[in-house]
Amino acid sequence: MARVAVVTGGTRGIGEAISLALKEAGITVAANYAGNDEKAAAFTERTGIKAYKWDVGDFDACAAGVQQVEAELGPVDIVVNNAGITRDGTILKMTREMWEDVIRINLGGCFNMAHAVFPGMRTRKWGRIVNIGSINGQAGQYGQVNYAAAKSGIHGFTKALAQEGARFGVTVNAIAPGYIDTDMVAAVPADVLEKIVAKIPVGRLGQAHEIARAVAFLCAEEGGFVTGSTLSINGGQHMY
Ligand SMILES: NC(=O)c1ccc[n+]([C@@H]2O[C@H](COP(=O)([O-])OP(=O)(O)OC[C@H]3O[C@@H](n4cnc5c(N)ncnc54)[C@H](OP(=O)(O)O)[C@@H]3O)[C@@H](O)[C@H]2O)c1
To answer: What is the reported pTM?
Structure first.
């Protein structure tokens, strides 16, 4: 039977490319999203991949969402924690809400999803968890104390959970993308983006499929010896 994967934030941007790459690898994919029903419906129409709406920042919603996917598609073997948001501002302008939203969704979402799937993976002695971090969690970024803290936390979370999963065939890895051409980056002011691209040695933004192929690599049957690692995919911008 085909493996089953949940890709959070899997209906657009990097997540859409990941959902497609896993489908191409013969995996049955459930793409989660937060609220953009229109984009999710268009995605399903285009790809034939089913979309499921829940907030990854909500612990109970993740448990219920995984339960629904398992009832419809079978046990979840793979989780890609890709859902993420930005609420940028310098610390002087950052509200407690901006801080809490980013920590709750970007970092809390990884815990909530892993908590829901880990027992089953451990029992079946096979699992793949891939967490999408960020170059800004490795290097920091002006105006992003919330985002950098959450993404940096993802890298620590990955190494700790990898140790818990190792004896049970459950690998846990992270990817730290640099700047990728998606809606999230389109929200960055043009003059700021120009300065960012000038600092990328390969001279361009990354493409979503360049992250997706690395996720497919980490989720492969043959990937059992790769765990606790962080793969930086950033055009040479930060060599970590
Ligand atoms: N783009 C970059 O340059 C870049 C660089 C480094 C890291 N990353 C990371 O890569 C991941 C994907 O980024 P992206 O640029 O593809 O983002 P994006 O284009 O903004 O798409 C975000 C996706 O996450 C979903 N999402 C947001 N909040 C959610 C929640 N609470 N629960 C469930 N789903 C939620 C969105 O659902 P809706 O469609 O319903 O809103 C959407 O599907 C993020 O974790 C981001 O931090 C991106």
So the answer is: 0.98
